[in-house]
Amino acid sequence: VSAGHGHGFELTEIDHVAIAVRDLDAAAQWYEQTLGATVAHRERIESDGVEEALLKIADSYVQLLTPTREDSPVAKYLERKGEGIHHVGYRVTDCTAALESMKAAGATTIDEAPRPGSRGTTVAFVHPKSGFGTLIELVQE
Ligand code: CO
């Protein structure tokens, strides 16, 4: 029985672990040089005020994340907590079903409905107060 089974969706992978950084180029270069990881994708998401670099690790990613403007949520995160793990992205077969299932279980969501994410994905965020202190992102490819 797979994870999420019986809730109308399946959890198929850790899609990504997102790390907030101040200098995206320096962080990407560090991961490439010291870990041998490769930047597979880079994207600026204006609506979220972030730029990301995705390092492909097997079927998952490490997502380096930096703010592109002062009022970006990631800018506020860096100010408050400094660099470090920002959220965990879970790959699901059905983002709508996963979000509705979590809502039905009482989770506080940030997104009312799924929306477009980077690299053509559909995503929704669940508040860290529901995730024992960790921001959760549901990702459907
Ligand atoms: Co993410």
Describe the structure in your own words.
The protein has 141 residues and is an alpha+beta fold. Helix content is 22%, strand content 40%. Strand 7 and strand 8 (135-140) form a beta hairpin. It is globular and about 40 Å long. Bound molecules: cobalt (II) ion (CO). Cobalt (II) ion is lined by residues 16, 18, 63, 87, 89, 137. Cobalt (II) ion (CO) is lined by residues 16, 18, 63, 87, 89, 137.
Topology:
Elements (H helix, E strand, L loop, with lengths): L10 E10 L3 H12 L2 E8 L4 E8 L2 E8 L5 H9 L2 E9 L2 H10 L10 E2 L5 E5 L8 E6 L1
Parallel strand pairs: 1-4, 5-8
Antiparallel strand pairs: 1-5, 2-3, 3-4, 6-7, 7-8
C-alpha Rg (nearest Å):
15 Å
| Mean of all residue-level pLDDT scores | 95
Tally of helical segments: 3
Strand content: 35-45%
End-to-end separation = 21 Å
**What structural category characterises the helix and strand content?**
alpha+beta
Query: How would you sum up the global shape?
Result: globular
Give the strand order of the largest sheet, numbering strands 1, 2, ... along the chain.
2-3-4-1-5-8-7-6
The amount of helix comes to 10-25%
Profile the largest sheet: 8 strands, mixed
Strand tally: 8
List low-pLDDT spans. Answer: none
The H-and-E topology, N to C, reads as EHEEEHEHEEE
Bound molecules: cobalt (II) ion
